[in-house]
Amino acid sequence: MLSQAKIGALSDQVAMPEYDRTAVRPGIVHFGVGGFHRAHQAMYLDRLMNDSRALEWGIRGVGTMPADQRMRDVLQAQDGLYTLVIKHPDGTLEPRVIGSIIEYLYAPDDPEAVLARMTAPATRIVSLTITEGGYHVNQVTGEFDPDDPGLQHDLEPGVVPTSAFGLVVEGLARRRAAGVPAYTVMSCDNIPGNGHVAKKMLTSFARLKDPELADWIERDVRFPNSMVDRITPVTADADKEALADEFGIEDGWPVVCEPFTQWVLEDDFGGDRPPFEDVGVQLVTDVEPYELMKLRLLNASHQALCYLGYLAGYRYAHEVCQDKLFVDFLLAYMDEEATPTLPPVPGVDLDRYKHQLIERFANPEVRDTLARLCAESSDRIPKWLLPVVREQLAAGRGIERAALVVAAWARYAEGADEQGEPIEVVDRLRDRLVERAQRNREDPLVFISDRDLFGDLADDERFVRAYTSALASLHERGARATLEDLAR
To answer: Domain named Mannitol dehydrogenase N-terminal: which ranges (predicted)?
Structure first.
């Protein structure tokens, strides 16, 4: 098993930490140590450390969900080490052992230990990859939704919190009481204005506990916005086997990813920060143009390919993006519906960016599953695709392709593909979505009548016409024929 004691015996083909990990001191507490964090933020810090920089910015990872217990067990057994494997389109694997995570804590084991790390003066950044749904945003109103049972527990007087929100706010409260400067809260999730959203939602949560604390957070805590990008599929058993067979590394949970990586970060920190710009991070004053580009072109295009591709019988993103019919549809969506909603993006050739996306999606080695892309759609479609629909409707421009994507989601949520094979719908609102979707044929508007997700779109005649036409075609003729009709 991979460990600090064994990395010296690894093959010369494997890059590994060139710094003394015993000299790394903690500076960041990170919630949500999944594949993306380990392929992205932790990788950037490891790069800095290999340049003998940022050794005071070691990461202490924190998990709060039951599924995080496995990450605790793996990282503790491996001294925080794991292997990042870049999968090149030609089949080449490029492994690197990452050493920037120096501790991992599962919060339910000992929440006070987590809070002790957060209140330590050396902790100057608390970062988050807690998924789109982890911010507790009402999708229609944009306001804080406190109904989650974990939040309700953490709002009770005198309890030690266990949720990410509860721990972040309690950590800030204790620092304020002790006269320790606030840490910067840095969101790395795929949410428009993720820093603004994190600030609004955490402050709203704090206000329910202590209005004065909320005022202090609003005034004194910095929440930089960011845009993050790297396709990081779920690690498969075959990935572990290839790592062991080709490189002799027994890793309990390696990470696989594409070669491309991007991080655009607002330079708005309350104190010190790592010199991220020295390893390719774009430090800017305004993230929004880059963020909208990524969310409406990359993320929304993932939704545009996943449901239709799955219904048509594909199971991987690269299969869909090696099919000209689907590629033409994706490019037409990006060119004709998404791009008109974007502001100018400094330093980016949008036409080249869009074609690069197709090349990235088509990488056969990444093997990104459509099931992964279809998961948690209720947190994704409202943030990534529906803003395009609304802006296009307001401007009197086309919405046919985006409406088809929504219809494909509704058809997918019925729970069976075009061959009658069952679909496992993975979504925090699964029961509600499936119950509505299974009434699509008798009531074509039932799915989009969920105002918590779609607002008043079911009242818009032009959207309803495009949506119901697409849904009927998916039912009667299937995904492929529907795309062929749209291409004519």
So the answer is: 27-276
